[in-house]
Each structure stands twice: as structure tokens, then as C-alpha cells.
Amino acid sequence: MDPSEAPKCDVAPATASAYLDPNYWDRRFNQEEHYEWFKEYSYFRHLILEYVNPKSAVLEVGCGNSQLCEELYKDGITDLTCIDLSSVAVEKMQQRLLTKGYKEIKVLEADMLQLPFEDEKFDVVIEKGTMDVLFVDSGDPWNPEPVTVSNVMAMLEGVHRVLKPNGIFISITFGQPHFRRPFFNAPTFTWSVEWKTFGDGFHYFFYILKKGERSSNNIEYIEKTSTPTFSLYHEELESEDYLFRTNLDGM
Predict the structure, then answer these.
(1) 65: nearest Cα among 118, 15, 25, 102
(2) Closest to 109 in 3D by CA, of 81, 70, 69
């Protein structure tokens, strides 16, 4: 990560539990112009463009102050809708996009647990680090707290609902497959599940969930897929990403 993108020392919270507080995000977005969770677009652009094209209607869940939507727009993907729970983030994002002339991108204040969209509206839904927030203070990663399970399932059910038939959900996360599998493979969903990794030392996970393509072979495939080992560079150990992930998935 470019040092210029690192958050100010008074922006990062002392503990990961602060990420669950909506007021924290409003305060943060008031002070911070830009921060990229889980690496910038160039690290996973080759993966994104395998599944997203200029004709795709795309929803980004939890846009914050990321530049992901701008990078997608530069790649010719203009039917973009971004949502965030923070009114501060939404207002600042709207102003930034208008200043740059990206008038087609829609930015709305909305809760990812109650997506305000009609059924089967989007070809692609993308989240980058947003779902990870739901796992903060989740307890035993093998047996998460009921509130965690409820919130994660509410998010996924909403995503599944707004995806068109054969639509794709892309989840970019720290979450390892053995912890994400029970949620992604819940009986209520019809999507297939696969993943790829990217990053230098630490491997971030890039999940691809294709609606309507679930098969009996899906679980067998996941069981046989090994999880990469972790090797953190010194600068990653000092980043806010590391603070975040040490409280997620039992790492």
C-alpha cells in the first residue's frame, strides 16, 4: 500500500470492536479522504475483469471512501451503484465523483442488511472488506455468536435476492474458506462457490459465487481445496488491515 494512502494515526481505532459503531465510521470519514482495505484495485483487477464487463449492472456494498468504483468506471463499467451506511461517506463520495465527472455512478445511503432494491436487479454485487466487519466480536470462529450468524445471513440473503439469474457475487476478504463455507453453502442459496487469492505475502481471498450454478460437486471441490499459508511482510504487520484481521476468523 502506498504510504500516502495509510490512515492517520487518529483514524485507526484502538480495538477492532470500534468497527461495529456507525458513529466511528462517520467520524472517520469526516477526517479521511481515502483508504483501501485489502489492497488497491491493481492487485485484483485481473480477477475482477474475468467476471465484470461494460454491460454489467454492478452494486458495490459498503463503498466507504474507496476508489474501487472509480477504477471500475475507468475500465468501462459505468452502470454502477454504491451504497454505504454512513451519510458522511455517501455525501463525500457523491461530491468526489461529481468533481471528477463520473456522473453516471449512483451513491446511496443504505444498510447492507436491508438492501433497498428490487429482486434480480444487478448482474454483479461486490463487497470488499464490508462483510468482515460483521465478524468483529463474533466469538468462537468455528461457532459464531447468533447475532453474527443472523447478520451475515441477512446480508447474503439480500445479495442473493438482488442478483439476476446467473448473477455473480464477488467477496474480497480475509475470511478463510473453512469459516466462510458454512454461510456461503447455506441451503437457501443457489450459487456455486469458488475462490482465488491475490496479494504479496498475505493471501487475500477473492470469492466468486455464481447464482443458479450450485451443484452437488460444489462442496466436494471446496473440501479438496487447500488454504494458502500466511506469510506477512513487516509493513503488513504494521497496517490497519492487520489490526482488523487479528480480530476476525480466529487469526
Answers:
(1) 25
(2) 81
The number of angstroms, rounded, from the C-alpha of 153 to the middle of its chain's C-alpha atoms is: 15
Distance of CA 121 to the CA centre of its chain: 19
Tell me the pLDDT tens digit for each residue of 176-225: 999 999 999 999 999 999 999 988 766 889 999 999 988 655 544 343 33
Three-state SS at 224: helix
Give the tens place of pLDDT for each residue, 144-185: 889 999 999 999 999 999 999 999 999 999 889 999 999 999
Three-state DSSP at 74 gives helix
Measured distance CA(174)–CA(129) in Å, rounded = 8
Q: What is the pTM of this model?
A: 0.81
Distance of CA 131 to CAs 76, 156, 170, Å? 26, 9, 11
Per-residue cell: 124: 454483479
C-alpha to C-alpha distances, 169 to 52, 68, 225, nearest whole angstrom: 11, 15, 20
